Amino acid sequence: MTDTLPPLLLIGCGKMGGAMLAGWRERGLGETIIVDPFATGPFPGATLLRDAAEIPAGFAPAAVILATKPQEAPATLPIHARFAGSAVFVSIMAGKTVAFMQGLLGAGSAVVRAMPNTPAAVRQGFTVAYAAPGVSAAQRALADTLLGATGEIAWVEEEGLLDPVTAVSGGGPAYVFLLAELLERAAVEQGIPADLARRMARSTVAGSGALLAASTEDAAQLRKNVTSPKGTTERALAVLMEEKAWPDHISRAIAAATARSRELAG
Ligand SMILES: NC(=O)C1=CN([C@@H]2O[C@H](COP(=O)(O)OP(=O)(O)OC[C@H]3O[C@@H](n4cnc5c(N)ncnc54)[C@H](O)[C@@H]3O)[C@@H](O)[C@H]2O)C=CC1
Ligand SMILES: O=C(O)[C@@H]1CCC=N1
Hints:
It comes from Falsiroseomonas stagni DSM 19981. It is found in: Cytoplasm. Strand 5 (88-91), helix 3 and strand 6 (111-115) form a beta-alpha-beta unit. By secondary structure, this protein is α/β, with parallel strands linked by helices. The protein is 45% helix and 14% strand. Strands 3-2-1-4-5-6-7-8 form an eight-stranded mixed β-sheet, with helices on both faces. The chain folds into two domains: 8-162, Rossmann fold (3-Layer(aba) Sandwich), CATH 3.40.50.720; 172-263, ProC C-terminal domain-like (ProC C-terminal domain-like fold, Orthogonal Bundle), CATH 1.10.3730.10. 1,4-dihydronicotinamide adenine dinucleotide binds next to helix 1 and helix 2. The site of (2S)-3,4-dihydro-2H-pyrrole-2-carboxylic acid has 4 residues, from helix 5.
């Protein structure tokens, strides 16, 4: 897409908001205003305001992207209700439901609830989105362009799926980074020098991700491809794949994060 994006209003420009903004810049920013009291920038091509009260009177965003922490929603959303007549609100806030946001923005306001992840920063994100009734086809197409600017996007028709999605793909990069941390630590425990341990752990996780991305084989088959019968990997997997080890831990971790997303709803 080469057309310039329509006017955008980004509320909160931290890690996720900033990553999305970078993706939009590649698509060609139109008039873009950021409201963030603390962000440092610079944000080329966009205007950073410290307070929503400074938004120029004539500014008419086609989309308002809500990218503050969920806990900031009650303080940050109501002032933007005036855009509800024409703008689509695209929220990436964990847990916050459409009903909760419409309670602050006005009943019937056009809301898309989405969950991206931080690989968005390198345009390899994965976003799942839900469009509430009342979002027009053109507004959904705009949301698709904005959310798809940082990687893959999938749309779901059931809002409740956003809670487990938040647990799996929203938080997923953290679990992968934890794996890199733990591999590095275990390498050092086995006597590998710290700088080599760090390089090995990072490269192994990154390279495995790249292989997975490039392959059409199931993850399970890629795992089997590493595992020689009676070899070394088999010994490690016997520890990790014990029912009370990773299978149980990952299930419980995802269930805990899903429950937390539901708690953040209201
Ligand atoms: N970090 C992640 O991996 C993901 C985060 N999210 C969601 O994205 C949202 C933002 O998360 P992060 O970017 O990680 O947090 P962050 O802390 O990096 O960014 C939040 C930004 O909001 C700004 N802010 C605080 N009060 C504000 C106000 N009153 N008005 C406008 N801006 C204000 C902060 O200055 C900060 O720049 C959260 O709701 C989170 O649930 C969604 C997917 C993944
Ligand atoms: O931890 C969180 O609440 C957010 C949502 C998914 C990733 N970070």
